Amino acid sequence: MIQKIKGTMDIFPDEAALFRYVEGVMREEAAKYGYGEIRTPTFESTELFVRGVGDTTDVVQKEMYTFADDDKSISLRPEGTASVARAIIENGKCTDTMPLKFYYIISCFRHEKPQAGRTREFFQFGTEAFGSTSPASDATAIALAASVLKRLGLKRVKLNINSIGCKECRPAFRESLVSYFRSHEGCLCENCKSRLEKNPLRLLDCKVEKCHALAEGAPKTIDHLCEGCRHDLDMLLKSLDAMGIEYVINPSIVRGLDYYTGAVFEFISEGIGAQSTVCGGGRYDGLVEGLGGPSLPGIGFGMGITRVLLAMREEGVADIEKELPLLYVAALGEFAQVKALAICERLRREGKFCECDTVGRSLKAQMKYANKIGAKYTLIIGDSEIETGRAMLRDMSTGEQREVLLDSFSL
Known about the structure:
The protein is α+β, with helices and mostly antiparallel strands. It has 2 domains: 13-169 and 225-314, 2-Layer Sandwich (BirA Bifunctional Protein, domain 2), CATH 3.30.930; 327-405, Anticodon-binding domain (Rossmann fold, 3-Layer(aba) Sandwich), CATH 3.40.50.800. Helix content is 37%, strand content 22%. It has 14 helices and 16 strands. A hairpin with a 2-residue loop joins strand 3 and strand 4. Helix 1 runs antiparallel to helix 5 and helix 5 (135-151) runs parallel beside helix 9.
């Protein structure tokens, strides 16, 4: 038997209905905030992610699915932001009226160890806004994410905020951070020993217990901010206060991709295990320029749909109303089967959800099936009903019946 690839999912209709519901909420909320949908390729030049995401990140070094295409190196997208930045540069959107605001719902791919809330193919709702350095833009992005989670019924999700500084203030912090961890280098895991030289900020986000304990005592980015970054963070927090969005300052929030600068944030869910971050994002003011475009600031986030579903189930808000058939037409005989198909097709063209037998059940089995699938009405037709053009329509909840004309009745 051929099995699915490790780290992927089969999603059947009931689960797909929940995905559609969640994605529908995301689309509707994004539209309220003025974001339009963008669709980018599933695979891109590997160079895009090396330059955009960062060649020292775990994503680029260990997790990308990369393959050769003629003389080019191609990678399945591990995230969405770099692709959107590439798209606006390539298509000349950087000179459009600002801000540019986009959202997407996409599949992403990372070669990670599969576990609850983490698969190798995963689904993400993301937003990107370009053209503003104002903290109001950050606050709007955070408000959109908070609005989606609130509308989905999630109450045990907390917003964590930090600032990782800019190119002006980060070098001094980096020096302080490296000095601290170098004095404890013998206690670091092998990954963190490598990060110490290449990407020291990631030392603050290690999940290995001994490294995590060390990070608790490390210098904090928030204590090393320049005047501009401090002002922007203060204005962001005041904006969130004004909008009634609760948050906690968490100096350990750094995010895992190199393009982040300034404010970063995560929405963290209680009770869903190690993969508790359901949404993460921040500002990336140098990304577009780093990919060959003009200097164009940006702010965005990615929200893991599977993790959102885990959080919804944990909080007991994942039950959605299933669409049930309005009518089931039970048929006796071949001619009645043809008529049943015609009736269902006519009503479906009116937008009605109708079913009839297609597997040769007996009348008793058909009625049992109609009850099982929750049909609101049933109609039984045989030779006499075809001859007269009339049949009895039964309301399955009350048992009441009324006569209808087969070729013209509606519901």
